[in-house]
Amino acid sequence: MPLVDFFCETCSKPWLVGWWDQFKRMLNRELTHLSEMSRSGNQVSEYISTTFLDKQNEVEIPSPKMKDGEKQQAPRQKPSQQPPPPGPQFQPMSQITGVKKLMHSSSLTDSGIPRFGVKTDQEELLAQELENLNKWGLNIFRVSDYAGGRSLSCIMYTIFQERDLLKKFRIPVDTMVTYMLTLEDHYHQDVAYHNSLHAADVLQSTHVLLATPALDAVFTDQEILAALFAAAIHDVDHPGVSNQFLINTNSELALMYNDESVLENHHLAVGFKLLQEDNCDIFQNLSKRQRQSLRKMVINMVLATDMSKHMTLLADLKTMVETKKVTSSGVLLLDNYSDRIQVLRNMVHCADLSNPTKPLELYRQWTDRIMAEFFQQGDRERERGMEISPMCDKHTASVEKSQVGFIDYIVHPLWETWADLVHPDAQEILDTLEDNRDWYYSAIQQSPSPPPEEEPGGPGHPPPPDKFQFELTLEEEVEEEAEEEEASSALGAIEVQELSTAQDASPPEELLEVDGQDASTEVEVEEMSLTQQADSVAAGQDESTSSDASVDAVGCSSPPALSPESLPLPALRTPPTPEEAPGLLGLPSVVAEVGAQKEHQAAKRVCCACTGTSSEDPPTLPAPGGWGSTGDPI
Q: Is residue 430 helix, strand or coil?
């Protein structure tokens, strides 16, 4: 079902900037709200905004207040005083760094190739584990153990054999083994997360996603080869630091690639450069046109793993979901290259962000690894006197909050959209994601409490609202200038206007409606003003009691609780039950789509001025994720 109509049906004028702009505005507000709660919340918010948003200046995250003693710590050095970044100096800018001369081909013959492409004395155990090669949630850690640390080579060789790609593209077996061993050697094993184990996991995840029933026979063999090759090389020679770290330290890579997708460009350069090594060109029997086409696709897919492109990828994927065409058998109809490469780019991106969708025991290991890598970068930044990047300060970062925020704002919206595209093939993946999110949320309350100055509550501070106690008025969405104290009055006026079609407007304080109650208070006030008889005393007392209760309810500092009748549930496929975790304290997980829906209605009212358009309010759009305003499936 379409989210919005972008043009007025009568005047054909664009009346909505775009659902995606609204979503980003709402996301920005939520991240800003999170950043104001605590220091750990600020880190989570900064990490999401600086890593996954195209324009880092879109969100102004307020910095947490520092104590006087902290201001004296870690003085920032001048740029001239910063030590040069590690690595070889005085190298030509045209030279691709990181490429090593290795000899893997001398001892390889077709008859001597191991069953899974790697030498191991635990081949039977490895074979048992690889029986799950085509399943989501393969334990890649055990595969690595049984393959002697050669998880990428083992997975790559087995998948290429499984899909018969060696025969289809006439890839010599010894060349295949030589290339994949050389490729794996160019992943750094001393990097905690972005190593060959991660590459093997992304490769196997891409392999499974390619086999989803909704994509059956959609892609050509060459497109499948490109996707698998892109997944295998997508992080080769990763140094274990972020793009922003390389930019801030004026590294050679940042200078070479002009600060644009620095690491992703480097991964591509190394991956293709290794094809030129001795007996490594696995594409030697492809025609020139095939090589050019494959290279173009691989570049597209690896550049899509730059997390700063996440929002653009998600927007494109949502648009495709709304306009998707399927065959009579339920298979996606992607009849042009543009649509197919868009799905492939998002597929590799999903595989790269698939850790939270895996079984919890695997997900927790990945979380430990990525946090260890973040903290190592933070230590390097601290040693250099640099500002420590978000989530990289081991003294203040909250692992549990980071994962809940990561899932709520990044992973769940992406995987929910992918699940819509291939419905119903990814439902089990989505269910696992939500279960893992709940586990990390429950771990927040069991983890050590933050220092007193970081507590969001306390004397004089109201406790943070629950996850679903978040709502913005239509005026605030459209104008973005409404004052906080006017929000309740404006919301009440709009709600009464929608419910009353023939009654005169009353003063704003009489029109306020709390928690979905009717306008009985307004009627009683009118009766008091018209009745002068003796028995009006009792009625006046009742009215006074009702008015006081209403004023107390409106005047309290905490926002009114939102019932299912007053606001659709956020876009979670599984509606939460009372005993489930309500969400990250003070933050909704995905209420941005709900806010966008309200702005959709407001914008359509504005367009009612054009001739021929009914002044009636448009029907309420279904809540995102397939849930109606009452919380029931539609």
A: helix
Catalytic residue among 194, 234, 267, 349: 194
| 42: three-class secondary structure by DSSP | helix
What pTM, to 2 d.p., does this model score?
0.65
- Sequence-distant (≥ 6) Cβ neighbours of residue 106 within 8 angstroms: none
Which residues 6+ apart lie within 8 Å of 502 measured at CB? none
Report pLDDT digits (tens) over 558-577. Answer: 444 433 344 343 444 444 44
* Short-list 418, 431, 432, 428, CA closest to 206: 418
Q: Are 567 and 593 in contact (CB under 8 A)?
A: no
CB 91 within 8 A of CB 252: yes
- The residue-averaged pLDDT of 216-241 equals 97
Three-state DSSP class for residue 633: strand
d(CA 71, CA 48): 25
CA dist list (Å): 140 to 158, 237, 330: 13, 20, 32
Tokens of 358: 């895996």
CA distance 625 to 623: 6
- Main-chain phi, psi angles of 623, to 5 degrees: -65, 145
CB 298 within 8 A of CB 226: yes
The partner residues of 326 in beta bridges, in order of sequence, read 332
Backbone φ and ψ of 10, nearest 5°: -95, -55
Q: How far apart are CA 444 and CA 400, in angstroms?
A: 6
Identity of the amino acid at 232 = A
Query: What would the pLDDT profile of 331-350 be if each residue is shown by its tens digit?
Result: 999 989 999 999 999 999 99
CB distance 235 to 186 below 8 Å? no
Verify whether residue 194 is a known catalytic residue.
yes
How far apart CA 496 and CA 480 sit, in angstroms, is: 22
What secondary structure letter does DSSP report for 410?
I
Q: Is the pLDDT assigned to residue 450 strictly greater than 60?
A: no
What one-letter code names the amino acid at 382?
A: R
Q: Which residues contact 598 (CB under 8 A, 6 or more apart)?
A: 472, 474, 477
**DSSP string of 377-420, one letter each residue:** HHHHHHHTTPPPPTT--TTT--HHHHHHHHIIIIIHHHHHHHHH
Cα–Cα distances (Å) from 614 to 2, 9, 562, 605, in that order, read 21, 11, 30, 9
Residue 252 CA: distances (Å) to CA of 86, 97, 123, 268: 10, 9, 42, 16
Long-range contact list for 335-341, CB < 8 A, 24+ apart? 340/218, 340/219, 340/223, 341/223, 341/297, 341/300, 341/301
Condensed to tens digits (0 to 9), the pLDDT of residues 371-393 reads: 999 999 999 999 999 999 999 99
